[in-house]
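Input (structure):
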């Protein structure tokens, strides 16, 4: 499972989700029920076609069919990662790691995604320690713990982990950057900035990778996701949760809520009178242009729901796709 969770894979996989998901070993599927296997195959086909909502719905079905199998959870976690929702990925990895406690990559997934989400950093440390204990020479596990230590402000510990990674993989630009950040925050500014400069010399994407992780070019901590504890929910209804299919985009409306539209669709200046759930139009309401009235329309997670059986089926699919997000609202 280390293929997808390579240290800097997210920047590569963002435009090739299906290829990245295909990297997960399929041996784990041996214990999956036939019905769940069929749903996992359906999910894989949907991912390949860029129908990520359908894929997430199929994953939810597979999990319901085989709740004690780690494979479906891990596969859905991988898709959540590539869609940019590490909080949801961490929850799936956490269940998968309990089901398969000797798999270091699952513990590492818990650690890294919790760190990215800035949530339950104590739990993340326990997961990373488990990953390193199971695979002490794993570059991915050590790198994840190094990043987590930066998030925790344990810069000396981060330096140790990144030093261990660089001893195993000396030319890893992401880890050189993290090592530099750790040095800067211990007062070794010149040395740290030298490491960062070396890291970015031949790796243009490493800067944006680290900015998405909360650290800037000078090693500074960037504003971003607030830190939350295990006793708090990992997400909230105000957090934007878009699962965009291929060819779709998010359009923000007046008032802050938004809908899912085709890429390139013309912007419209309208407001929404109904519920806003995960930053998306939800339920029955009116899309009202300034100074005009409109008929009520039904939305589910930002998408229009037509009347009849087809609309009901689409609403059910969206409900399954957003099942994990709804569950994440509870601590």
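Output (sequence):
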């Amino acid at each position: 499972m280390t293929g997808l969770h390579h240290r800097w894979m997210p920047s590569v996989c963002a435009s090739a989700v299906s290829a990245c998901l295909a990297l997960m070993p399929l041996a784990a599927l041996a214990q999956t029920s036939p019905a769940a296997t069929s749903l996992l195959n359906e999910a894989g086909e949907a991912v390949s076609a860029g129908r990520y909502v359908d894929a997430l719905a199929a994953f939810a079905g597979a999990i319901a069919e085989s709740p004690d199998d780690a494979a479906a959870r891990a596969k859905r976690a991988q898709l959540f990662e590539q869609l940019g929702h590490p909080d949801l990925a961490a929850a799936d990895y956490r269940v998968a790691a309990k089901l398969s406690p000797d798999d270091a990559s699952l513990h590492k997934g818990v650690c890294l995604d919790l760190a990215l989400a800035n949530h339950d950093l104590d739990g993340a440390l326990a997961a990373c320690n488990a990953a390193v204990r199971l695979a002490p020479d794993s570059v991915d596990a050590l790198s994840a713990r190094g990043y987590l230590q930066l998030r925790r402000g344990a810069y000396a510990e981060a330096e140790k982990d990144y030093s261990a990674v660089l001893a195993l993989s000396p030319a890893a630009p992401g880890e050189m950057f993290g090592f530099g950040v750790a040095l800067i925050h211990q007062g070794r500014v010149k040395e740290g900035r030298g490491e960062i400069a070396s890291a970015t010399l031949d790796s243009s994407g490493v800067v944006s990778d680290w900015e998405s992780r909360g650290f800037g070019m000078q090693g500074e901590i960037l504003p971003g996701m607030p830190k939350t504890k295990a006793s708090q929910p990992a997400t909230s209804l105000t957090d934007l949760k878009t699962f965009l299919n291929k060819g779709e985009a998010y359009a923000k409306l007046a008032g802050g809520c938004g809908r899912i539209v085709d890429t390139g669709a013309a912007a419209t200046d309208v407001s929404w009178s109904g519920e806003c759930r995960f930053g998306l139009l939800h339920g029955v309401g009116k899309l009202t242009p300034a100074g005009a009235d409109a008929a009520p329309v039904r939305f589910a997670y930002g998408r229009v729901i037509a009347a009849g059986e087809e609309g009901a089926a689409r609403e059910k699919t969206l409900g399954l796709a957003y099942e994990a997000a709804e569950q994440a609202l509870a601590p």
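Notes: The chain has two domains: 9-212, 248-327. Residues 284 and 298 are 4 Å apart (CA to CA).
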